[in-house]
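Hi F.,

I've been meaning to write this up properly since the lab meeting, where we talked about keeping a consistent format for the predictions we share between groups. The idea is simple: the sequence comes first, exactly as it goes in, then the structure tokens exactly as they come out, then a line or two of notes. No screenshots and no reformatting. I'm using this chain as the first example so we have something concrete to point to.
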Amino acid sequence: MNLIQYAGQYRNNLLNDVIPFWLKHSIDEESGGFYTCLDRDGKVFDTDKFIWLQGRQVWTFSMLCNRLGMREEWLRTAEHGADFLLRHGRDANKQWYFSLTREGRPLIQAYNIFSDCFAAMAFAQLGKATGSAEYNQLALDTFQNILTRFNKPKGNYSKAVPGTRPLKGLSLPMILSNLVLEVEHVLPAETVDSTIRECVRSVMEDFYDPATGLIMENVTPDGRLSDSFDGRLVSPGHSLESMWFLMDIADRLKDEALMRRCTDIALNMLDFGWDKEFGGIFYFMDAKGRPPQQLEWDQKLWWVHLEAIVAMLKGYHYTGDARCLTWFKRLHEYTWKHFHDPEFGEWFGYLNRRGEVLLPLKGGKWKGCFHVPRSLFLSWKTLEEIAVSQTVTVQP
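Output, unedited:
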């Protein structure tokens, strides 16, 4: 296929398969919010509601309105989820719970700062779509709360004994490098600039190991390696996702050196994380090749492969590095063959190492209406941009 044909495949799957699947099966008309625990054919198998997945779905439909034009059904769906979050999502300290019952009663405390991250994303995008000052203010307040918790994201819920082996994780600076651009329109310019600088510095100096070319999941507070289970942990999916986040920042800053580094690191992460025997990308790995602590280390997950596709397309678009296009085609072939479900729609989330479906669900505690539609949208649009730029380049 040529690039326009690839773009058409991603567009068609997004608009005619994935989005209709969630519109048909996930909306809880009685209690509000969204069901996310959906079986292969969309049947609800559990009614608990997870705040970060509620926020992610509000973000998805708001983003579609902002990027593709307002559609009443999309906006109504986003506001449906936002109303549930406003009524039930936060505790007395204005922090976002992790999970609720179907009706909105709190189940799990606000231990996970990523509930706050995706709430901020959701209300910022919905505020942009609607012009609502209330939504924009909520996004701003939530983002500022995230910044205050930056050095202690789990607050009082951390299980670690202080001082014995202090480590900090990649996840928060990684997500902030994307989140800050999502909520930029509600932030002071100096907050945007300082957050971008710190995220780039943290990811590329603290978590990047130049000796191996790998992005580590956990390092000491001063950015050194820790020879421990957690300190040797590598998540190729997180690394690849963080690199396309930073590619967008490099494009914004017109920083060619940063763009080149991000592309090279992403290519190295794929070489490291690719299963040479069965294909696909490992979920977790040990930087020194030792047995990982995570028993699910060799599973193949939907989001890992979709984020890798986005990273390779952006790398090719921004740098023209032909290795990125080669990897995109390889990833495309594996991902569409193993994860896409042409019979019932949407995408499987979990495969075993051999690429066989491990769980037939389409949504659950961790998988919702986010990675698949976001990656389809970004891949579609990036492929179109590449095709246009190549057409312009070859014209006399």
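Notes:
The chain has two domains: 27-156, 165-396.
The chain is about 55% helix and 10% strand.

If this format works for you, I'll send the rest the same way.

G.
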